[in-house]
Every structure is written in structure tokens, then in C-alpha cells.
Amino acid sequence: MPRPCAEQASLWEHGWFKPAHRLDSPHFGPRPQGACIDLLVIHSISLPPGQYGGPEVPALFTGQLDWNAHPYFMTIQGLQVSSHFFIRRDGSLMQFVSANDRAWHAGESAYRGRPQCNDDSIGIELEGLEGGVFEDAQYAQLAHLCQAARKHYPIAHVAGHEHIAPGRKQDPGPGFAWHRLQALLGWPKAHFPQPFQAPE
N or C: which end of the chain has fewer CB within 10 A? Predict the structure, then answer.
């Protein structure tokens, strides 16, 4: 079992972030013994693509999506995935897997010289289109979550799905403002994907 830092323990209980709405996913497993949870991975998702606010993404992560409800769902039928967190367009926060456990969000991946990023990362999905822009409320919630995670786990890196699985994934894409997240967090640029994306 990974050993998180004691600081801010009151906000966390067995890897569950108390301010988040909890919806348990069956799609998870144990982390490898001695895993160092030091990476945050940012994704984007919407179901059906481009539609927001519905129950479909939580249903996918909890294994309850009706594959027949939309033609697009037939193209992902049987997919078993999860993320630790999901941030809606209005900034509301859901959690599906304890951060102490291994969610199935990264797939085949590698970053900072390590393969299999699911082993030692926390996955954060933003409701949005790959390459699209995100809302102020999402950046605010994301920054709050990142700060809380870093105070509880030894977070040293933040990356997008596109950075840990280049050529296979493109989310969150060019619409995500890495410089804005860096400014909100005040963390060194070395924590972020390189070359760092400066504001236009």
C-alpha cells in the first residue's frame, strides 16, 4: 500500500478526496508494491462527443453505460475504463477510484523514464472535447485538486494523456492552457510537459 504524506489528511480518507462526489467504479486494481504516486495525468472526455452534462461519462466509468443508447457508444462497446476524478464544465467534482488504487485511465504509456503510468499516477478527466477549450470553473477546480493532491502525495509531475501516450492520444489537446494551470498552481515549469507552452 502506498504511503501518502500525513499533511492535509483531514481532506482524504483511504485515498478518497472528501470534497468530491463519490461514485465507485469496478474498473480498478491495486498499485504495485512501493509505487510512488508522483504524476497527475490530465485527460478530456465527453459522451457522446461534444455533449455535456449528462450521465454518460459517470455511467462509463462505473460500468453502467447503455451501449445501445447512442450510435457512438457501439464503437466503444465493452470498454472498461475509469479515472480517479472527473471535473464537469461547471467545476463540479466526482471521484470514481481511490487515489491509493490504480485506475484504468492511461493505457499503454510512459513518462519520466517509467512505463505503465497507471501504476503511479492519478487520472483527472475534464469534461470537454479533445482540442477544445475548457471553462474557468474547471481550471479553478483542477488547480484546487492538484494542490490538495500534492499536499497528500509526492506529486512531482503533471502531464496530459497526449504526453504519456504520444501518437496514440491527443487529449486534452491544444485548447488546454498549460500556462494558465502553471500560473494558478505556482509550481515550477519543470513540473509540466516540456517544452512548456507559453501564453500567446
Answer: C
How much is the pTM? 0.93
Q: What is the pLDDT of residues 49-89, one digit of tens each?
A: 999 999 999 999 999 999 999 999 999 999 999 999 999 99
Cell of 180: 494558465
- All domains in the chain, ordered by first residue: 9-191 (3.40.80.10)
Crossing angle (nearest 10°) for helices 136-152 and 178-185 = 50
Q: How far apart are CA 99 and CA 102, in angstroms?
A: 7
**What SS3 state is found at 39?**
strand
Q: From 120, 94, 124, select the one nearest 30 (Cα to Cα).
A: 120
Nearest to 184 by CA among 132, 144, 131, 126: 144
Instruction: Check 125, 127, 130, 162 and give the catalytic one.
Output: 125
* Radius of gyration over every alpha carbon of the chain, rounded to an integer in angstroms: 16
As a whole number of angstroms, the distance between CA 95 and CA 61 comes to 10
Is-cis flag, bond preceding 2, omega within 30? no
Catalytic annotation on 125? yes
For 11, the 3-state DSSP assignment is helix
Q: What is the 3-state secondary structure (H, E, C) of 147-163?
A: HHHHHHCCCCEEEEHHH
- How far is the C-alpha of 19 from the C-alpha of 135, rounded, in Å? 20
Task: Measure CA 126 to chain center.
Answer: 7
pLDDT at 58: 98
